[in-house]
Every structure is written in structure tokens, then in C-alpha cells.
Design goal:
alpha+beta; rod-shaped; about 35% strand; 6-stranded mixed beta sheet; about 325 residues
């Protein structure tokens, strides 16, 4: 069978006694070997390199849909003394109901927290890690044993996709309520375990996550100014779950003591003012496929072999001509 298909052999063999080795051929072989080694290393580096592509698009859904505010924070006050509201520039006023946010008495603690602005951010964006962590569950913190001196507020609320303010205040302060919380019972020291906008991906870490603010007085006003950018993460290295639609935000914070003593205007509480940018950032992370790498590798190897072979033949041709006419 093998004898019948030998006529199709595209790689005919030459007997060794018919082959002739030259010094020039040996030199070119060494040069080819070093060149191939360098090019293969370069090509392998390109293969393992992760390319990130940033695109800025107009957000055509701005003002036409809603966005979810997802919060998990603990305030060092009794739950029955707190109220949650949202105001926006469209004139909508939403008072959060019990089915929006749950209020659970807990013990206030500061384990694993850092003050706002002191967390070190990673210099390099890793979309593959972001997409993977977005699918994971958020690790709940354990309430320590002791007196229940705080209130954990957890849940989400849908608001208009326009600039607004999510805020938590004491009953009777800023709004007309049937109850007026005594000043000595007010303490807006708080920890933020999770705060995000849009689809809730528990594994993603946002700027205010695991942050802590300590109140210096009963009439403390905490203000957060957030700029929200709708973001799409695309990881082309994953087969399933490769797209994450979320919202990044940058935040600055400011706090002050309000009231007659300081002559500062304001209402004690926690005020989170947010603005939604009219653009969408799409970050695509990709890497060359193995077949692409293999194809380029074969092209480089074959191309160098053929090119150097032609150079060798040309040099031998001109050397033969020189030897012929120099005699």
C-alpha cells in the first residue's frame, strides 16, 4: 500500500552521499537557528499578551430607562429612627418601602474596613478577573455578638436614569414625620459593605465597598458625590458569561457638622448624590487563538527557511561566477 502512494510524496529524499555541506551553508544555518529562536520567543510573547480595547459610545438609553441602586450598609442608630429616600432632577421623590430595603438590628463593628479614599487601586485593569468575580457570590460579613446598637440596611431600589440623590436621614429631620428623633439618639457613623448601580454583580468591588466613616457629633452630615459611567466588560477568552453590563463610578466625599453651633446649613444624615454620564465605555479583552499563533509560527519558520535558501543559492551562484572569471 505504501509503495503505491510513494508517487504522491512531496518531500523526496536525497541520499547523503549526494549532499554537499559548505561553510557558507553552516554559517547561514546558525544564523537561521538564532533568528528563529528570537522570532519564536517574540511570537510567543505576542500570543500570551492580553490586548485591551477601549471604546466610547453614546448611551442612547439615558433618560429612557431606570437604574437600580444596590446598597448594603450599617448605621450606628436604631432602625426605627431611620428613613430612606431618593430625589432626582426629574422631580421624582421616592420613599423606600420595606420591600425595597430590609432593616435589621445588628452590632456595629469595623472589622475589615478602611476609610473612604484610602484603599489602594490596582494600576492594571484585568477584565478576565472582573468577569470571573462578577459571577461569584458576595461574602457576607458575620454580625459579632453583643448589643444590637446599629441598623443594617440592605436591598435595592429602581430609580430614574437621571441625576439624583439617595439619602438616609433621621425621622423628623428634613421631612415631616409623626416622630422626631432626639438629637442625642443620632449617630451617622456608618460602614458601607456594598454600593453599586445597575445589575448587581456581587463579586465586583466598587470604590465605596468595605469603607467606614466615623461621625464626630450628633449633627454630622456625610456627602458623597458620584459620577457614574455605564460600562460593558467583554472577555473574549471566555466561552460562557463573557459580558458584564455594569456601572463604574468615581466618588469624592465631604462631611461637616451642621446646626446652630457651627452655623453650617444642612441636614444630618448620609447623602449620596449621583450623576449618570451620557456615554458608555466598552472594554474588550482578547488574546490571539492558539491556531492563529500556530499559523504565524509556521509562516515565520517556512518563510525564513525558503528566504535563506534562496539567499544561499544566490550567493553560491555569484561565487561560482566569480571563481569562473577569476581563473
Amino acid at each position: 500500500m505504501f509503495k503505491s502512494i510513494t508517487r504522491f510524496d512531496a518531500f523526496p529524499k536525497i541520499d547523503k552521499n549526494m549532499q554537499k555541506s559548505t561553510g557558507l551553508g553552516g554559517l547561514l544555518t546558525l544564523l537561521v537557528a538564532f533568528g528563529l529562536f528570537f522570532l519564536v520567543l517574540t511570537e510567543f510573547g505576542q500570543y500570551i499578551h492580553i490586548a485591551q480595547k477601549y471604546e466610547f459610545l453614546v448611551d442612547r438609553t439615558a433618560g429612557e430607562s431606570t437604574v437600580s441602586i444596590n446598597a448594603d450598609l450599617t448605621i450606628a442608630m436604631a432602625c426605627e429612627n431611620l428613613r430612606i429616600d431618593v430625589l432626582d432632577v426629574a422631580g421624582s421623590s421616592i420613599h423606600a418601602k420595606a420591600n425595597d430595603f430590609s432593616k435589621t438590628p445588628v452590632k456595629f463593628h469595623t472589622v475589615g474596613l478602611v476609610p473612604v479614599g484610602e484603599r489602594k487601586s490596582k494600576s492594571k485593569l484585568d477584565v478576565h478577573r472582573i468577569v470571573a468575580e462578577a459571577q461569584r457570590k458576595h461574602r457576607e460579613y458575620a454580625d459579632l455578638k453583643g448589643p444590637l446598637d446599629a441598623c443594617r440596611i440592605k436591598g435595592h431600589i429602581n430609580v430614574n436614569k437621571v441625576a439624583g440623590m439617595f439619602h438616609i436621614t433621621a425621622l423628623g429631620h428634613g421631612y415631616l414625620d409623626s416622630k422626631h428623633v432626639p438629637h442625642e439618639a443620632m449617630n451617622f457613623t456608618h460602614r458601607v459593605d456594598k454600593l453599586s448601580f445597575g445589575i448587581d454583580y456581587p463579586g465586583l468591588v466598587n470604590p465605596l465597598d468595605s469603607s467606614l466613616e466615623i461621625a464626630d457629633g450628633n449633627f454630622e452630615m456625610f456627602q458623597y458625590f458620584m459620577s457614574i459611567v455605564p460600562t460593558i466588560y467583554v472577555d473574549k477568552r471566555r466561552t460562557f458569561g463573557s459580558v458584564v453590563l455594569t456601572n463604574q463610578y468615581a466618588v469624592t466625599d465631604y462631611k461637616k457638622i451642621v446646626g446652630h453651633e457651627t452655623r453650617e446649613a444642612g441636614i444630618p444624615g448620609i447623602f449620596m448624590k449621583y450623576e449618570i454620564e451620557p456615554i458608555v465605555v466598552r472594554v474588550t479583552e482578547s488574546r490571539a487563538s492558539f491556531m492563529h499563533f500556530l499559523t504565524r509560527l509556521c509562516g515565520i519558520t517556512g518563510g525564513i527557511y525558503v528566504t535563506v535558501g534562496l539567499m544561499n543559492n544566490l550567493i553560491q551562484f555569484f561565487m561560482n561566477i566569480y571563481e569562473k572569471y577569476s581563473k
